[in-house]
Amino acid sequence: MIKIINFILLVIFVIFVLVFTIYNHALVRVTLFNYESIKMPLSVVVFASIILGIAIALVYHFFILFKIKKENKKEAVKNKSQKID
């Protein structure tokens, strides 16, 4: 069931991207410090930013989960050693 929901969300996202691309086909340049990109459609820039933001959020989320799991493991070892004493 979850796979179907994920597929439906992906299809909706792709449709949204296509509609957004059709209505926002203006070419833009991205400038960061002294570096300037080639001219790209506005929709490509927006969705590349969204994908980059999602990737950064996922990495941060997994880092936090790993940190919590590591702390729980240390507490479990500490509690186990206290029970033995």
Walk me through the structure.
The model has no long low-confidence stretch (mean pLDDT 81). The protein has helices at residues 2-23, 42-84; strands at 27-28, 31-32, 35-36, 40-41. Strand 2 (31-32) and strand 3 form a beta hairpin. The protein has one domain (2-84). The protein has 85 residues and is mainly α. The protein is 76% helix and 9% strand.
Précis, in short:
This protein has helices spanning 2-23, 42-84, and strands at 27-28, 31-32, 35-36, 40-41. The chain is mainly alpha-helical.
Which stretches of 5+ consecutive residues score pLDDT under 50? Answer: none
The SS-based structural class is mainly alpha
Name the shape in a single word.
elongated
| Gyration radius, rounded | 22 Å
User: Which range best describes the helical content: under 10%, 10-25%, 25-40%, 40-55%, 55-70% or over 70%?
Assistant: over 70%
Main beta-sheet strand count, sense and barrel state: 2 strands, antiparallel
What is the strand content? 5-15%
Say how many strands there are.
4
Average predicted local confidence, pLDDT = 81
Give the topology string: H per helix, E per strand.
HEEEEH
Number of domains: 1
The number of distinct helices, counting runs of at least 4 residues, comes to 2
User: What order do the strands of the largest sheet run in, or round the barrel if closed?
Assistant: 1-4
Q: What distance lies between the first and last C-alpha atoms, to the nearest angstrom?
A: 48 Å
